[in-house]
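Internal tracking record. Fields below are filled automatically when a chain is submitted to the structure queue. Please do not edit lines marked as system-generated. If the sequence contains nonstandard residues, flag them in the REMARKS field before resubmitting.
Queue: standard
Priority: normal
Entity type: single polypeptide chain
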Amino acid sequence: MANNERLTKRVKKMEEWIAENGSGPTLNNFNYLLEMIKDTSARFLEMERTTNQYRNLVEEFFTSKEIGDEWNAFIEEKNNAVQKQQTEEVSVQEEAEGSEETIEAQEEEE
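SYSTEM-GENERATED OUTPUT FOLLOWS
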């Protein structure tokens, strides 16, 4: 009930604002942005639907050609390679060097 009253107050404030300001540039911009959001949402849903269709076609293809096991082995090999890359060791410094120490070390090397 409280939500309904709160929403009713908001709608009344919006209606008052529209009545005061008419259909000026701000309202036109607001309408434009709303239309863009709707359009983006519709495009996203269409893209998601198309992606799911392709995913189903790929799954059907792998099943019909009986290459699902080969694909799974390929993916497992790629995942193992990625995990090995992520676990490479990085040298650890005992203490963070101050900027003066770093500059001195660079000067000594030169």
